Amino acid sequence: MDHEGIRSILLRSIRKLIEKDLFLVTNKVKEECINHRLGVYLEKALLSSYKEGPDYNVDLEYNKNYTNPKEIITDKGELRIRPDILIHKRNSFENLLAVEAKKLYPSRYDREKLEHLLKPPYNYEVTALVSYLPEREYMKVTIRTKDKTDELKISKFEHDKDEPWGRNL
Q1: In degrees, to the nearest 5, what angle opens at C-alpha 55 toward C-alphas 53 and 59?
Q2: Considering the domain 3-168, what is its CATH architecture?
């Protein structure tokens, strides 16, 4: 699956979250509840869009690399990680998307975690930082590949036909 296909699945899923579950965001329920719903929409989009869909798993808080803990090396040493949402094939190195989704803004640690997931041994095709921002009229989404970063604002209340996925920042 190419980067644009993964990006499309992510952005359609965020739009579906806004359409069906905006109540969860605006009423400040726990982040894990909102992430679950985003994971459901990612799985549905994956299954409906690509013949590879059934072979991939959408997992929340998945902390394994085969049977070992999922770890990264930072300036603080080796850290075990648990990304919020993954699209991958379990027990393989076929990794499509890693998402860190926060009610407010992601931390430096969240950014660093995703940066490491783009590199060996994980080699995720795409990573995304999603900020739900309950007090704002938009969600902020940063989508990264190894050589490109896009920052978008996705309106929670209007859908522009010319810019269906949001505006670049």
Answers
A1: 85
A2: Alpha-Beta Complex (3.90)
Say which residues have a Cβ less than 8 Å from residue 152's Cβ, sequence separation at least 6: 11, 140, 141, 142, 143, 165, 166, 167, 168, 169
Q: How far apart, in Å, are the Cα atoms of 163 and each of 15, 94, 106, 144, 155?
A: 12, 31, 25, 19, 10
Distance separating alpha carbons of residues 64 and 40, to the nearest angstrom = 20
Task: Give the burial class of 133: count Cβ atoms within 10 A of its Cβ; 0-12 exposed, 13-18 middle, 19 or more buried.
Answer: middle
Q: How far apart are CA 97 and CA 83, in angstroms?
A: 10
| Boundaries of every domain in the chain | 3-168
Cα–Cα distance, 79 to 15 (Å, whole number): 33
Q: How many Å apart are CA 78 and CA 59, to the nearest integer?
A: 23
CB 104 within 8 A of CB 113: no
Say if CB 50 and CB 1 are below 8 A apart: yes
Q: What is the mean pLDDT of residues 142-147?
A: 96
Structure confidence by residue, pLDDT tens digits, 67-92: 888 888 888 888 898 999 999 999 89
